[in-house]
Specification:
By secondary structure, this protein is an alpha/beta fold. 21% of the residues lie in helices and 22% in strands. The strands form three sheets. Strands 10-9-8-11-13-12 form a six-stranded mixed beta sheet. A five-stranded mixed beta barrel has the order 1-2-3-5-4. Strands 6-7 form a two-stranded antiparallel sheet. Helix 1 links the parallel strand 8 and strand 9. Helix 1 packs across helix 9 and helix 4 packs across helix 5. The protein starts with 35 loop residues before the first strand and ends in a 7-residue tail after the last helix.
Length: 336
């Protein structure tokens, strides 16, 4: 075997032939200017169901996207077979910039964040008033994730026939969160869905809540069966009448008045990915006062400028309390 010294020239270098005869790799990616626009409805084992115009298309992610994943709610560009016929497969070649992102981690020690849904306008936090008991810490964590991701929260309280909503309403009244209170009889009669839909028109709303609170039952009431059938491949994912939601699923409201996204029941909502400094953006009346805070202020320390800002009458003291409670949520475990 020949060993090269430090005085080699180009003639001494052996070039391996390209036996496959294919073109060399390049970093220049095609623009796909003729790609069709679509919206991701659900993701299942590497296959993405997308809505393109009035058709549902089964697609896979192009290799050129690398590790960039597409999630439910993403606006994407697709090429290939866009007919939507059985056994056809399109290709997602571009994921457009997201307007909002709902993210969570498995727990507070998990460094890997998971994007639950993209481009949603609103987060409906569904909680039962009894059976199972409400979990305020989980609600607080969902609120922090909503504010951080650019979503407006909506609190939906179910099973009011088993327990009154007064305690939760007192706890969250200072946050000025819109809410809906429903009972099991109202849900069965369709009245609950009608009142919830008043908050959904023209929006993409993600629904979250732990198992047993009636989240998927409410989504089923909001989305008529014929709208489910119109989404083609999606119909098999939901499992009518039983809780089988294993991945997020976007469904259209009647009369094209918006979208609901049913998400899997959550046992925990980790906030390891949240930068506490961004939570204050949900409190615009407090933001100007934070300019005079010490560097890296936690907003819950003796020299925090927000105390003076509130004392001068620029904001309600209850709002500062609410901000500090939400910031403290990130440091607490959900069972605390």
């Amino acid at each position: 075997m020949r060993r090269y010294g430090k005085h080699t020239d180009e003639d001494d270098i052996r070039a391996r032939p390209n036996r496959k005869g294919n073109r060399p790799r390049t970093n220049i990616r095609p623009k796909h200017e003729d790609a069709a626009e679509g919206m991701v409805l659900t993701v299942d084992r590497g296959r993405l169901t997308c809505l393109v115009e009035d058709r549902t298309i089964l697609a896979m992610k192009a290799r050129e996207l690398g590790r960039k994943a597409a999630v439910v709610g993403d606006r994407v560009a697709l090429v290939g077979d866009l007919s939507g016929k059985k056994d056809t497969l399109a290709r997602i070649v571009r994921v457009e910039e997201r307007a909002s992102v709902l993210r969570r981690t498995a727990d507070d020690d998990d460094p890997f964040e998971r994007v639950v849904v993209a481009n949603a306008d609103q987060l409906a936090i569904v909680t039962a008033l009894a059976d199972p008991e409400p979990r305020p810490r989980l609600i607080d964590r969902c609120l922090v994730a909503a504010y951080d991701g650019g979503l407006t929260p909506l609190l939906v309280m179910t099973k009011s026939d088993l327990a009154p909503p007064d305690k939760l309403l007192e706890l969250y009244g200072d946050l000025d969160i819109p809410y809906v209170v429903t009972s099991r009889d109202e849900l069965a009669a369709g009245e609950a869905a009608r009142r919830v839909q008043d908050h959904l028109d023209g929006k993409i709303t993600a629904f979250v809540g732990h198992s047993g609170v009636g989240k998927t039952t409410l989504v089923n009431a909001l989305v008529p069966e014929d709208r489910r059938r119109s989404t083609g491949h999606v119909n098999a994912v939901t499992g009518r009448g039983r809780h089988t939601t294993t991945s997020a699923l976007a469904l259209p409201l009647a009369d094209d008045k918006g979208w609901v996204v049913d998400t899997p029941g959550v046992r925990s909502f980790g906030l390891a990915h949240i930068d506490p400094s961004r939570v204050i953006h949900a409190f615009p009346e407090l933001e100007p006062g934070a300019v005079n805070c010490p560097r890296a202020c936690s907003h819950d320390e003796p020299d925090c400028a927000l105390d003076e800002w509130v004392a001068e009458g620029h904001a309600d003291p209850a709002r500062l309390y609410s901000l500090r409670r939400l910031l403290a949520t990130r440091e607490r475990k959900e069972g605390d």
